[in-house]
Amino acid sequence: MPFLADANLRLDASPIDYIELAFYFVLVLGIGYLARRQVSSSLDFLLSGRSLPAWVTGLAFISANLGAVEVMGMSANGVLYGLPTVHYFWIGAIPAMLFLGLVMMPFYYGSKVRSVPEFMRRRFGPAAHLVNGISFAAAQILIAGANLFLLASVVNLLLGWPLWVSIVVAAAIVLAYTALGGLSAAIYNEVLQFFVIVVALLPLTIVGLVKVGGWQGLVDKVTHSPGGTAQLHSWPGDNLTGFGNNFLSVLGIVFGLGFVLSFGYWTTNFVEVQRAMASKSMSAARRTPIIGAFPKMLVPFIVIIPGMIAGVVVPEYLKDKGLLLADKTATTGVTANNALLLLMRDLLPNGILGIAIAGLLASFMAGMAANLSSFNTVFTYDIWQTYVKKDKPDGYYLSLGRKTTVAATVLAIGTAFVASQSANILTYLQDLFSFFNAPLFATFILGMFWKRMTAAAGWTGLVAGTASAITIWALSKAGVLALAGQGTSFVAAGTAFAIDIVVSVAVSLATQPKPDSQLVGLVYSLTPRDALKHDDTGENAGWYRKPGLLAGIVLVLTIALNIIF
Length: 565
Prior knowledge:
It is a multi-pass membrane protein. By secondary structure, the protein is mainly alpha-helical. It is 73% helix and 0% strand. It is globular and about 65 Å long.
């Protein structure tokens, strides 16, 4: 894949821009060093000692997701599909985030598990636990590679370094603060990075809208560009799904994206859940994803809109957008992934450019750090401590957590080259989510609400669901299934969910379930109602701290946004 520096499209950064970037990196590493002084046990390193307030974990929760998927992937979709991309936020994220806070977190936090795979072990036993632990670890390395690749692409644009040098340098920066301070360093940097990202992308959106003549000017330009008016309305989203049928598109978005992919990602993905589990109380843990949902509603306006603007003002897209929509190679060497970088190149003056670049780097670093911190927790606790070295002193696992972070970074360097082969990084990541998250959600939700589900069903359902998603992907790649856009991931996720449920039910009916006494706190019907209620005393008092009320406000606002756009 050609790199922009090779195509003579370098960002024209000045000394002031580099000074701003240097200051940002010093600040990031300083936070890692300060966080290191608070680490005295493996729990401190891997779960922040469960001591953080809800506003910190809430911002970290959303910042951990502001990586390659959110920033470069969604802006790429803005170029290719336009407003239908908002479904990844208002349909494909917020409902699941609210469900996580209201329903799932009492089980996670209340059971005092250290990871999602550990919850699987308590509910289904070692076989499902090991399958989930291995698949999750593999997914995090692949996704970390995607974040690292995009981080390296910014370094490449700035300095013109070769791809492998850019990747190694970018990886070293993230490794430095994650290995120093563990999850606390990652979370506090994610809070910082959230504000840096907003400060970087908001001016780009405003300047871009001024450039095209405001919202109406953007509408006019998009209408007369390749893709046309389909990019100006979120529903039915035919161009996004590639189904060519309004009913099937809506069904795919609501069921494939809004239910299977979304709930599979937000409710069972330990990258996100880990942030809530670092909270100081059950109430704070429940509020964490709900607090994160407020900024999540507004993120489309600073990532998708700039992508749409880039599609109608950047010279390379004016020439080659039609080729990119047809999934062909652009004559200029650009891809949809380059949207924000090219828009920054064309619109932002020096000084502001440095802040914008810092914002991009912050987003990729937040995403990669989240992947690394969740990987080392799952590997250390769920794989190594459980199956390899069970009874070592805590210092052993603290040291192992740091070594695992280094090893994960090296592996991510390898998977970054895999991610570099994708013209649209969001498509690549959605395919991964359909492999790993969709079947896990099916197993999880069935096991939580159906006490009859057995241990054997836990692991067989996961394996069958993952295998079916990979099969759909392979058939699509081979041309056997005519799926365009990001319809492949929607169909694969839906298939994985359905196959997992069918296999799990069949195996459960043929095998022996656990007794009810072993499922208290793990199955909804067997959990005391008091354990699921909001504690409104002490520091959790006040209407603005009630998870149910906050979730209701978010839901109303989200419905309004869907109606407006």
